[in-house]
């Protein structure tokens, strides 16, 4: 699921009809490329203009037209053992760069704090570092530089939905109910801030991702502000908003979710 979520995140600013990710039939591992059908040709054209050649995890993406007769000619541009294992971790800087790229030609403008961060970042592949390493690196910088970095991702796209990362390591979990315990912990915390109506623990995510939808934007903002940057099981949590439409595409059952959830030990 983590590679699929990354793939969808790249194209979340476009109206998408379907996504097909190709896997090796023998190993069931991603081949590093896929096919997208857009609702309209303008979105397809804009995606190619803005994302073709965009550097992701240190490698340029290839985005172009594909027909049934050209499928065999389409070369993977993201295929590697590392991506197959863990997907792509853009990091805070990478997400900012991607959003700036997607905003080109749309009339949308990034918040001032995001612009300041982008102009202040050295032109290195910092976005390829794991989120925890990025967080630790920022701790070594002056406090006045750290605080805007910590809050920038929270200010870009505030919605009812967000994703928590570094919540767990699936390779280190041994309890058969470990995902339920994490679910309960997140619900407990969100219940301090108006609650949560949907939650999904991505057990296969190497980044330890948990997806959450709150009843209101205000509730999500309060929860994100409370959780982002905190320590959980020895790791620093990162929280990033997810556009509601994209969240609903990932989790259709969340569209009509309105009932506040309770931890499993309180469910009747």
From TrEMBL:
- RRM domain location: 1-68
Compositionally biased, Polar residues: which spans?
118-127
- Signal peptide span: 1-18
A GO term for molecular function: RNA binding
Please name one Pfam family that this protein belongs to: RBM39linker
Return the SMART domains for the record: RRM
Q: Which superkingdom, per the lineage? A: Eukaryota
Which Gene Ontology terms describe the biological processes this protein takes part in? mRNA processing
SUPFAM superfamilies tied to this protein:
RNA-binding domain, RBD (SSF54928)
Where does this protein have compositionally biased stretches of type Low complexity? 133-152
Q: Which UniProt keywords apply?
A: Phosphoprotein, Repeat, RNA-binding, Signal
Spell out the InterPro entries in the cross-references. Answer: Nucleotide-bd_a/b_plait_sf (IPR012677), RBD_domain_sf (IPR035979), RBM39_linker (IPR029123), RBM39_SF (IPR006509), RRM_dom (IPR000504)
The keyword DNA repair belongs to this UniProt entry's keyword annotation: no
**Span list, region Disordered:** 116-152
Gene Ontology cellular-component terms listed: nucleus
Q: What is this protein called?
A: RNA-binding protein 39
Organism of origin is Trichinella pseudospiralis (Parasitic roundworm)
Q: What is the lineage of its organism?
A: Eukaryota, Metazoa, Ecdysozoa, Nematoda, Enoplea
Instruction: Give the gene symbol.
Output: RBM39
